[in-house]
Specification:
Blueprint: E1 4-7, H1 11-22, E2 30-33, E3 47-49, E4 61-64, H2 71-82, E5 87-90, H3 97-104, E6 109-114, E7 124-130, H4 136-147, E8 150-154, H5 161-169, H6 171-188, H7 193-213, H8 218-224, H9 231-239, H10 245-264
Parallel strand pairs: 1-2, 1-4, 2-3, 4-5, 5-6, 7-8
Antiparallel strand pairs: 6-7
């Protein structure tokens, strides 16, 4: 992997760093710039600083893992690296290629990526899009960095990053809400709240692992567990009705996509 500077080492940045180190990145080949001392990793051989201003050597890749609202504050110092050809890999939601070009220069090499929170357990999925100046080799280096925390997909049309954000970026929250809703429904039927939540959590987690390991599509897995005339079929009549779960998800993802576009302005 390329020598890199990680700017921001919160939950997502920290998960990525841990993945890189486990995949063979030498600690001496990375620098972490993190203003909060408690968030700086204590990995032997890894250099940690409070700000990128303390970094004099040019990194091959800068990974931007700070919150979107603090991005304006960190980019001015980093422009010096952009002028020298460093590639910037951003995982900040809503920050567009145009935004980074405005701060780092029109010729800056930028990869915009949207990971999701299962990256914390290296089970995430990330979608990325490159600016025109990013070479195939540089794209490959960014792919390897993102792959340390899960699957990676690429799109050429940056406009697709808005529905990507709505589906996979925000998606974990929908799954957690599903667990809450299942547990609440179970409690209303007489189960204790603790048992209902344990059943819901284990069911969703186990189903996700089955989906991951199976070569069958989700629709077939659903059919496999649905006996004609059985209890699952009765529940699915409600969930798959014209006013069931699909139109709710259609409205939810459309709303999230609209908000993603608004935040990018």
């Amino acid at each position: 992997m390329a020598k890199l500077l990680l700017v921001g080492c919160g939950k997502m940045g920290g998960a990525m760093l841990e993945g890189w180190l486990q995949r063979g990145l030498a600690a001496s080949d990375a620098i972490v710039a993190e203003p909060v001392e408690a968030l700086r990793p204590r990995t032997p051989g890894l250099r940690c600083v409070g700000s990128s201003q303390d970094v004099r050597e040019k990194p091959e890749i800068v990974v931007l893992a700070v919150k979107p609202q603090t991005m304006d504050a960190v980019l001015p110092d980093l422009k010096r690296f952009a002028d020298e050809g460093t590639v910037f890999l951003s995982i900040a939601a809503g920050k567009t290629l145009k935004y980074f070009a405005g701060h780092l220069g029109a010729n800056a090499k930028i990869v915009r990526a949207m990971p999701n929170t299962p990256a914390a357990v290296r089970q995430g999925i990330t979608v990325a899009t490159p600016s025109k100046g990013v070479s195939a080799a540089e794209k490959k280096s960014c792919h390897e960095l993102l792959e340390a925390v899960g699957q990676v997909l690429w799109v050429d049309d940056e406009a697709l990053m808005d529905p990507v954000t709505a589906l996979s970026g925000s998606g974990p929250a929908y799954v957690f809400l599903l667990v809450e809703a299942m547990a609440a429904a179970g409690a209303k039927l007489g189960l204790t709240p603790d048992m209902a939540m344990q059943l819901a959590r284990a069911t969703v987690a186990g189903s996700g692992e089955l989906l991951k390991q199976s070569s069958e599509p989700a629709a077939q897995l659903r059919v496999n567990v649905t006996s004609p005339g059985g209890t699952t079929a009765e529940a699915l009549k409600v969930l798959m009705a014209d006013d069931g779960i699909q139109p709710v998800f259609d409205k939810a993802l459309a709303a999230a996509t609209r908000r993603s576009k608004e935040l990018a302005k």
